[in-house]
Amino acid sequence: MHIVRHFPHQIHEEEDWITLADGCRLAVRIWRPMDAEREPVPAILEYLPYRKRDLTAMRDAQSHAYWAGHGYAGVRVDIRGSGESDGVLRDEYLQQELDDGVEILKWLGQQTWCTGDVGMIGISWGGFNGLQIAALQPPELKAVITLCSTDDRYADDVHHMGGCLLGDNLSWASTMFDANTCPPDPMLVGERWREMWQERLEGSGLWLAKWLKHQRRDDYWKHGSVCEDFSRIRCPVYAVSGWADGYCNAVFRLLAGLEVPRKGLVGPWSHKYPHLGVPGPAIGFLQESLRWWDHWLKDKDTGIMDEPMLRVWMQESVPPSARYETRPGRWVSEPSWPSPRIDMQPFRLTSGHDLLPMTTASTLPENHDETPLTIRSPLSVGLFAGKWCSYNAPPDLPHDQRDEDGGALVFQTARLDQDIEICGQPVVELEIEADQPVAMVAIRLSDIAEDDKATRISYGLLNLTHRDSDEHPQPLEPGERYHVRVLLKHIAQQFPAGNAIRLSISSSYWPLAWPAPAPVKLTIHPAGSRLLLPCRSPQPQEEAALPAFAPPEAAPPLAKTLVQPSQETWRVIRDLANDQTTLEVINDEGTFRLDDIDLELSVRITERYTYAYGNYDSISGWTQWERCFRRGDWMVRSVTRTLMTSTAESFRLRATLDAYEDDSRVFAKSWDEEIPRDLV
C-alpha cells in the first residue's frame, strides 16, 4: 500500500463530544481541513461500537485522515455505551442507536466547518446502520457507502442462513460479550471511567440469549431490515463486499431492490475494506470512495455514475486453501442488475450421480434410472468448511472438499470441454423427503481440478421446516415428498476446460451450522431435482474498456510498538479412543502499544466446537475471550466464557464474565439459561 503523506489540504484532528437531547454524550474524533472554518466541507460519518480511541484507531487514522486531506471532514463516533460514549449498549441496531445517528447527522449539519451535507460509510456494523439510518430519511444524509452489510437481518446475517442457526451466531455473540466489557479511557473521561465501566459490565447482558429467543423471522429481525421497504431509502447507495465475505448476497439484492442511484462492487476479499482487501488483489478504494463523495456531496462530475452499475472479480480456478494471499481473475461488469445477459443453465441430477446439462441435444446414459438416493451424513461434514464470514485470519476459508464429500451425496459433470463462467446466485431445486420432522440440507458447489482437488465455490443451507416461510415454519411429515429451492451464495467464477463441476448434498454442516435435533436421513429424487447455474458469456471488448482501479493508498498509520507477536491456529482434533472430535480455533492477537496515547492492548480468543461420534446431544460450542488494557500502573482486564449445548428439545447457555482492576477481581457474573428449540 502506498502511504500518502502530502495532501491538498492540511489536516486538523480533534477529539470532542456530541451531547444528545437526552443529555447522553457521544465520543467523536474528527479529521478536517485546517481551513474548514473558512471554507466549510461535507462530512463523512462512520458510526460504530468498536472504540475509535484504540481498537479501530489504526484503521481510522488511515482512512478518515485521507478524506480530510482531500477536502472532507472524517468523523468517527462511538455508539452509545461503547468507547468513551455514555450509556450501555444492550443489543445491535436498536432504535435508540438509529435515533442517536439522526441526531449526530443534525449536529454535523450545524457545525460551522460543515456544508450541511453528510455521507455515511461503514463496514459490517457501520454498513448496517448506514442503510438503516438512510431509511429514516434524515435531510443531512446525501449518500451512503455500505460495505459487508445486509438488507435482511434474518435471511442473510451472522445469525441464520436458510433458517438454519449459524455457528458464527455464537462466535459473534462472544465478540460483543467481550466488547461490552471494555472500559472507557480514563485519559478522556477522568475518574468517571470506573462508574461507566461498572454500568456496562452490569447492564449489557448476554446477547446470545436474546437472539436465541428469536429463531424465526419475527418483528425482532424485521426491525433494521431495510428490505422490508426499499423505497424508504431515498439517497444514493454504493454497496461493496467480497466473495470470501459472508455478506456478498446483499449487494445484488440492493441493486435489484433499490430505486435510487446505486452501484455495486464485489472483489475477492474477505470481511475487509477493499484497500486492505485479502485475498487480493486489493484496490485503491479510498480513491474510489472520493469519486463517489465528490459526485454526490460536491456535485463534481467524476464519471463514476457513467460506469456500469456492477463490477465484480471473476475468479479463476485455484487449488483449495484455508487462506489465500490473492485470487487470480479479472474485473467484469454488468450495466444493470438483474442482468439480461445472464442465463440460468439447468443441470439434471441422476441416480448415477451425474450432473448433466439439460439441453435439447443432451441424452441420458443407457444405464440411467430414477432410483431415489439417500444420505445420512456424519457430523464430521463441515469440519473443513471454514467460517460463514471469513476474515482470512486465522485461516478460515474452506479446505479441500474431498474431506467433506465422503459424508455427502455427490453429483458431478463430465470433464468440461470448454470454459464455463458463472455470475450470480446458483439455485438448487430438490424433490426431497426426510425421516424426521426437523431437518436441514446443506449444498456445496465445487470446482474439481484435473488432479481431483475440490475447491468450494459456493454453498447454501436450508432448514426444511422453513421451506415455504421463515416467518411461519412448519414441521416435515416424515416420508412425504417436498419440492424445495436452496439458494446458494452469489459468486463469479470461471470453471476451466478440463475441470469438472461437483454438487454435494449433506444432511449436516457442523460447526458452520447447528445440526438438527436428531440424525436425519434425506431421500433425494433425481427426476425432480436440478442445479441452475447463472452462466455468463465473456465480454472481452467491454472488459478491456473498463477503467482500472488505482493501487491502494492511505494516510500514514499511527505509530505502534509490538510487545508480543500474534499467534493463530485452526486445528481439527480427533480423539479416536473416545470417539470425540474438536475444531479448535485460537487467535492470539498478541500485545501492542499505541504510542501516541501510551496504551497497551492485548486479546486472546479461543473457540472449540465439539461432538462425540453419532451423539447429537454431545454437540457443544465454547468460546473464551481474554482482553487487557494497560497504561503505566493502570491495568484492567476481562475474561468472558460462553458454553452452548443442546438437546432435542432445547438450547442451553452457560456464560461467565470476570473483570479485574490490577490483580483484583472487581466484577463477576454468570448466566445459565435454557431456551426451547423452535423447529431448528
From TrEMBL:
Cross-referenced InterPro entries: AB_hydrolase_fold (IPR029058), CocE/Ser_esterase (IPR005674), Galactose-bd-like_sf (IPR008979), Xaa-Pro-like_dom (IPR000383), Xaa-Pro_dipept_C (IPR013736), Xaa-Pro_dipeptidyl-ppase/CocE (IPR050585)
An example Gene Ontology molecular-function term: dipeptidyl-peptidase activity
Keyword Hydrolase assigned: yes
Domain Xaa-Pro dipeptidyl-peptidase C-terminal, first and last residues per copy: 290-555
Pfam families attached to this UniProt entry: Peptidase_S15 (PF02129), PepX_C (PF08530)
SMART domains assigned: PepX_C (SM00939)
Position of the signal peptide: none
Record keyword Hydrolase present: yes
Record keywords: Hydrolase
NCBIfam families linked: CocE_NonD
Designated name of the protein: Peptidase S15
Species of origin: Chromohalobacter japonicus
